[in-house]
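README, section 4: Worked example with a bound small molecule

Sections 1 through 3 covered apo chains. Here we extend the same pipeline to holo records, where the ligand is supplied as SMILES alongside the sequence. The molecule in this example is nicotinamide-adenine-dinucleotide. Nothing else about the input changes; the structure line simply encodes the ligand pose together with the chain.
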Amino acid sequence: MDKPFKNVTVIGTGTLGTQIALLAGNAGYDVTVYDLRKGTLGETFARLRASIETKGIKPFVPWEQLEKVKEQIRETTDLDEAVQNADLIVESVPEDLKIKQAVFQELGEKAPPETILATNSSSMPVSLMEESSGRPEKCLNTHFYVILEGMNMADVMGGTKTTPEVLQKGVRWVRSMGCIALTVKKELLGFCFNRVWRAIKREGLWMWGNGYVDFKDVDRAWMTFTQMKMGPFGIMDSVGLDVVRDIETVYYNESKDPKDKPPQALTEKIDRGELGVKSGHGFYTYPDPEFAQPGFLDSTK
Ligand SMILES: NC(=O)c1ccc[n+]([C@@H]2O[C@H](COP(=O)([O-])OP(=O)(O)OC[C@H]3O[C@@H](n4cnc5c(N)ncnc54)[C@H](O)[C@@H]3O)[C@@H](O)[C@H]2O)c1
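The generated complex, written as C-alpha cells:
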C-alpha cells in the first residue's frame, strides 16, 4: 500500500477523531492521539462500537481488529509530545472557528516545520485557519465521513496556498486507509459530497422544525428509497446534534438565508441535553433506536 507518511497525529478523539486514528492505525501508520481529556479514545471507541452494533452495521474493518489497533495507538495529553515526530497532523476538535484557529496556531508553533496540517472540519475551508499556522502551503482539508458506519470516503481540498504536492499527499493518505478521496478542485464551502448531504439535512430540519412533517417519515422514506439502515435524522443523531447545529450555523452565517438557520426546535433539543447517540437521546433514544427495530418500515402500520 502506498503510504505518504509514517507518523500521524490526531488532535481530538471524539466521534470522528477516534475513527480517523483507528483507520490510520489499521493502515499501518504509527498513530499518536492528543485530547484535552485523558481516556477519550477508549470512551469514544466503546460508545461507537455499542451504537454501531445496535444499528446492525458491520464496519469494513472487524471490531476485534480495531480493538488490537486501539491498543497500539499512543495517547497523550501533552501536545509537545504528540506532535514532535508527526509527518501529518489531523485536527478533529469541535466545529468552532476560534478553537480551530487556536489549534492551528499551536500546531504551527510546536510541530516540525515540514509537518502537514489537515482539518477534519465539516464546513470550514482551511483558508480560514491556514494563516494561524504560519505554514499555509502545508495546510489542507481532509473531511472524513462516519467511516465505521461504511461511509469510507473523505473530501480533500486545498487552501489558498496549498502546494499540489501537499494536496496529492492528502489524496494518497485518504486512499491508503481504504477511503475514496473526493477531490475538490477549487475552494468551495461544504466541499464535495458534504454539500449534497447538507441539502438533504437542511430540508429535513426545515420541514420538521416548522411542523410540516414527522421526522420519522423522512427517515422511513429515505431508508426505503436508498435501502440504507437509517435516515437523515438517525444520521444526525450519530453525528451529534450540537455538531450539526454548529455546522449549519457556519452555512447560515455565510448565506444569511433564513432557510439555512438551524431551527429553534433543534436548539431546544440541544439545550435539554439531547445530543443524539452520545447522550443517549436525540431524535431517537439509544441504544435501541426505533429505526433499528422491526416494524419501523412496516407498511401496514
Ligand atoms: N461527528 C461527525 O459525524 C463528524 C463527521 C465529519 C466531520 N466532523 C467534524 O469533526 C470535528 C470533530 O467532530 P466530532 O463529532 O468528533 O466532535 P466531538 O465533540 O465528538 O469531539 C471533539 C473532541 O475534541 C476534544 N477537544 C476540544 N477542544 C480541544 C483542543 N483544543 N485540543 C484537543 N482536543 C480538543 C474534545 O475533548 C473531544 O474529545 C468537527 O470539526 C466536525 O465538524 C464530524
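What to look for in the output: The pocket of nicotinamide-adenine-dinucleotide is lined by residues 11-17, 34-37, 40, 92-95, 99, 103, 120-122, 143-146, 239-240, 243, 247 (CB under 6 Å). The domain at 7-184 is CATH 3.40.50.720 (Rossmann fold).

Section 5 describes how to batch many such records.
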